[in-house]
# Entry
Amino acid sequence: MSALPLPEQFRIFAQGAARDGATTYDVICRGVSDDPGILALIAEAPLRQRRPNLLLAAVHYLLLAGTHHPLAAYYDTVQSIAGGPPDTPGGDLFAEFKDFCLTHRAELLALLAVRSTQTNEIGRCTALLPALNVIAAGHPEGQPLSLLDLGTSAGLNLLFDSYGYTYRQRADGAVLPAGRPDAKVHLECTVRGLLGDLPPLSLPPIARRMGIDATPIDPTSDDGAHWLLACLWPDNLDRFTRLHEALAVARTTSTPPEVFRGDIVDELPAVVERVAPSSPLVVFHSWVAAYLSPERQRELVDTLRELARGRTLHYLYAESPVETPGLPTPPSPSPRPTSHLATALVHLPADGTPPVRLADMHHHGNWLQWWPTAPVPTVRPAELEPAPHRR
# Structure
């Protein structure tokens, strides 16, 4: 849970949205940061629910559900499912957003009271895949891993090996394919640095897939899918379409992940007990610990360290260092550390050695900076494909 004042949270969110080309949320969040009326509305929500992305998701949810308002014309995602010719935005975007919030104040407060933003961003699998290969390399070849995703939402990241991947070197456009070439879901990631810095990108065998979430989402539920889509940004149709496709994969998988409802710290010991001690267990989370207090973050780490005393347990996370001071995140090797919105990918090994900062990454998995100082094997040059000729 962020300790920053609400206006500052919205200003920071606007900056991140602007960097990602999310113009709609940039404008809206800058407006909210200076608007007493909308800030007062959010202040009526429970303390832990007062976050920019939750208000934005609630508005998006109502629009996707068919609530009529001129604001819908500014949301590409809403226009894409409406059918017919798109509406033409008119007037002032923030003025329309404010009018929507005040008009639908009761519905929004009802959502803010019970909903939570879901961190089921499958783009983060572009970092999960190489990290799991690093972990698998430390065990006998072919030994399957068991996975436990904290804050798993609909469990879509647990299906990482159902997706296809393309890693593209930023410097010259050289590409490295991975995953399933015939997958319906395909993820692209720009590599800052060299493709050769990445570990091998095979699909490690998985024995068991589990997750814990306070409010898990059933991907076969229309309402659950609807809320997940609402948590995306309205001017990124690629992410919107990709999530649609990932939900379709989850609905048809023959072995869906086991998802347990509960607090990710309190329920952790009981869920870990379900996994055979002989199976190496990887407990991971991404942009979940930011919703915990620093004290609770430290309690999560202490719980995992205690559980690791009796079994082989790896701890892997991708979190914003600024928002997770209670996690043991090593400093970035970068001479120019990235902004607060960049995410550190950290591995706490099973052998009790200090944590390793494997990479820095975009919070949606759009780019990845793998640190060659991390103890990982390198990709052989023959595995790299030349960049396509540009016209």
The chain has a mean pLDDT of 89. The chain has two domains: 6-114, 122-383. The radius of gyration is 21 Å.
